[in-house]
Amino acid sequence: MSRTSTAIVLCVTAFAAAGQVEVDRSLRMVNSDPAERRIENLGRATGEDHLITLGGARTGTYLWSPAQVNGSSIALQPEPPLGGYVPGTRLRFLAPALQAAPVKVDVNGLGERSVVHGDGLPLQGAQVAAGTVLDIQYMDTAFVVQSRSAREFCPAGFLPANDRTCLQVDQQPAMNFFEASEHCRGLDAHLCTWPELLFACTMLTGQLNDMHTDWEWIDDTSDHTHTADQGARWTCRSQRSQGAVPSVTAPFRCCARLH
Q1: I want to staple 154 with a disulfide (CB 3.0 to 4.6 A). Which of 106, 115, 147, 166 is the partner?
Q2: Which domains does the chain have, with CATH numbers?
Q3: Average pLDDT over residues 178-191
Q4: What's the pTM?
């Protein structure tokens, strides 16, 4: 500790007083021994303008926040609390179980803010597994996800329906059932099953192109009637059987599983 710091400590000790020292100038450590040029025993910062320790910075203590679902958003309570939404502010939290709606956060009761991917599309609750660590940073008017998500592992042109399955954004040109299956296999994917299409259609509302414009093939057949199944014509739950013959064509989407 520098001589100046020592003098301050001795002065406080001599009078058996407790308090803080406010310095309105730069503090220079001038002891010739580098090991003595230090400040020790700093307490935990309780305000945004307080000093933090190396330990606090290294562990990310001040970025971490408890999180819980509160109505339509995730309530975050970092300590010390935020004084306002400032661009560049970064927070991390353990995601609670979420619904399918777009994710929003409310930090210290400052009001809801959307959480989006780097391309600006909203983060959907279905894309976040409970217990996942989310790293978000405030930019302009929303928090942008910094941590890697299932979205980054999906093939180009696919979106994650959940943490296990990615689905093609664009409806593929009409082919017969067998050609559609081969087309998806060529993309290292598969023709979407009925549960996959139904789930993705429900969870990714507004993010899938040409949804509900036509019947789409799904990977399901009724061999005794020589038919295949189609879905998603009028609503996500629309389903029907159609002849699985080369002359019958329909659009479709491929699904890819995350490993």
Answers
A1: 166
A2: 1-42 (no CATH), 67-147 (2.40.50), 152-257 (3.10.100.10)
A3: 94
A4: 0.51
Between the CA of residue 163 and those of 38, 128, 132, 153, 199, what are the distances in Å?
A: 47, 7, 10, 10, 12
If DSSP states are collapsed to H, E and C, what string results for 69-127?
Answer: EECCEEEECCCCCCCCCCCCCEEEEECCCCCCCECEEEECCCCEEEEECCCCCECEHHH
**What is the share, in percent, of the chain residues with pLDDT greater than 90?**
44
Tokens for 63? Answer: 């970025």
